[in-house]
Amino acid sequence: MGSPFILLNYKTYNQGTGQGAVEIARACRAVSEESGIEIAVAPQLPDIYRVASEVELPIFSQHMDGVGAGSFTGHVFGKCIKEAGAVGTLINHSERRLTLAEIEASLKAAKEFGLRAVICTNNVPTTAAAAALEPDYVAIEPPELIGSGIPVSKADPEVVSGSVEAVAKINSGVKVLCGAGISKGEDLRAALDLGSQGVLLASGIVKAADPKAALEDLIRLV
Ligand code: G3P
Known about the structure:
Layout: E1 5-9, H1 19-35, E2 38-42, H2 48-54, E3 60-61, H3 78-84, E4 88-91, H4 100-112, E5 116-121, H5 124-132, E6 137-140, H6 152-155, H7 157-170, E7 175-179, H8 185-193, E8 198-201, H9 203-206, H10 211-218
Parallel strand pairs: 1-2, 1-8, 3-4, 4-5, 5-6, 6-7, 7-8
Helix pairs in contact: 1-10, 5-7
Bound molecules: SN-glycerol-3-phosphate (G3P).
């Protein structure tokens, strides 16, 4: 398999807010350059432009809506996040769930604006359904393990391998990420050994005392 993809979601953690968003992005950029591994960040929406202006690395939005230009007050417009500097977006994160129709509309809008789309899911059947929509990635994250420090790749390996198998049957062009509790080198290694092509993670890096050191530990067994 090729080099993994690592996507770091800042959520609304204090450490990843404002100037902190830039500092963590700098750490990601440094580790990405040293290792050759693609590391992307998903800061809060108002920080996208700030991070993009100061650090050269792939930036994802934490959410976008399936709306076009016009009368959509309070919505996240794909053109706006793209112009702010994002190259992709999460869709349907378990902390920002959407209806099936909304997922489909967000994905359509992401494609229209040339944004890479990661549809988040919570089990094998929803992963299979998401893959049928043909996003760039699906990210399987059992909600009960999110933020727990217990890695999905060790606590529930079947949900990762089951997702990989289900996606391969539906559309082998869709890449599978996994997430929840991932923070250490052995967690990422186990995720890759189960067939995933990368990880979506948050607290283990964003809340670490030294995010750069935490990232270096994360990739040490790749
Ligand atoms: O989006 C990533 C996420 O939900 C996993 O969070 O803190 O368990 O790495 P965490």
